[in-house]
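User: We ran a pulldown and think these components assemble together. Before we commit to crystallization trials, I'd like a predicted model of the whole complex to look at. Sequences follow.
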Amino acid sequence: MNRNRNLFFGICLVAFSSTMALLSVLWTPYDPLEINPDISLAKPSWSHLLGTDVLGRDVFSNLLAGSRTTLITAFLVVMITMSLGVTTGIGAALSPRWFNRTAIYSIDIVLALPAVLFAIVLAAIRGPSTFTAVIAISIATAAAVAQVTRREVNVLLNSDYVLAARACNSNRLRIVRRHILPNIRASLFIQASGAASIAILAESTLSYLGLGTTPPAPSWGRMLASSQQYLIIDPIVALWPGLAIIFTVLGFNLLGDGLREALDPTLRKSKS
Amino acid sequence: MKFLEVNNLTVSFGNKVVVDNASFELAAGERLGIIGESGSGKTMIALAVIGLLPDSATATGSIRLAGEELLTLNDQQMSARRGNQLAMVFQEPLTALNPLMRVGKQIAQPLRNHKKLSRNAGLARAIALCTAVGLPDPEHIVRAYPHQLSGGQRQRIGLAIAIACSPKLLIVDEPTTALDVSVQKEVLKTINDLVQQQGTSLVFISHDLPVVSTMSENIAVMRNGEIVEQANISALFNNPHHEYSKKLVDLARATENKFNRFTIGSTA
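Assistant: Here's a predicted model for the assembly, 540 residues in total across the polymer chains.
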């Protein structure tokens, strides 16, 4: 465990937010949507562990329920980003030059579009929702993943061991499966965990701008947005969703780093 | 008809000709050395024969293996012959192995591709091949990753991969350049022994005349993409024709003398 502290803390943090999300399905101390103006902006106490917001909703319950939105977004974004980005990247690297060129330019065009602007357009067409946010974030991150993957695969295709594999009758599929995927695995984990972090932050941003999760469904980004107006009266309400975002993002980053270390035989200290 | 016949082979990248009208032949079980300085097109000949030239290169002429023209085969047909009929050992043992795959699996790869061996049968063959190329403790070696092995060990693994399917033609491209001298000798001896045992034809590529002379009966001398002289070893040493061959022979003699003086000095 000493050898891989990143993995340990990463798993702990991600497990913690996952538990919160699971717990919220079964139980929250109060109904996260229940409004009670009598206890507006209450301080943390035994009855309301993290206090209440301006409408008297229990912050802790909202935080639990909000983690669901956040984690589902992160999960969907990682799935879409990685499958789209990695297939595009590998496909582009393996295909003839003209297609490779076209792919590079298309990826560059997508990368040049500001992701937020893209989300605004998408929200205008489809209406704001968590799903709109997921699609907008996925396309933006998939382009980055595709670009990095294509470059790495290109380098590997010219490596001696791919040449050596071809010298003993390995076909393309086999070369991709046995030589290329394992050797870009480390960077794929980093990119997947990066995509998860970006997704969480972007979902919060988009919800904050009113382009993501729609009220009244709780989301960490929206909690931050609504607490902003009362920052001077009660700064502590903004603290909780902020901390939750920070620690979950940190968790995913550590998880990615830790997995990379754990899976690289050259970094393992003991002879296996 | 000889086993391998290369006629007027020309390899070019656009306008740049890297192999110019090369012709040579090799009988079954014979050993041919190709010698030349770096950039003279030795490796390009090897890659052309095994059909792994970069996409940007074009090859014209004729390469016939056991009477069959190789240059007109498509990639799939060529692939079916690679590893099986002809195989290659690469120059850099450090980069020719996949760093994330246990070496046993890599040795078993051509066998599993060609003979459709099961995983366990492949591993058993890999252990046998490790023994054949003179690796100690093969049961442990097959479970190691490339970075856990020394340069000499890695080059032996490369050799084991190449001979796994008992190819009829083995192309060896500067196999010992990256190794230190004492390891060099042992690896060369292993290659020689294996080739003689199995009756494999050998194309041995090097820039080092003394090394080539221990590894082949005939030598082709290359310069700037052209084969400038072809002769058997003793003829080349006794009567080199081309300017460049003379230089090589003189140089080899000088090193030999130095070496002799050194051994005499150390025994006295």
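DSSP finds ten helices and ten strands in chain B. That may be worth checking against your pulldown data before setting up trials.

User: Thanks, that helps.
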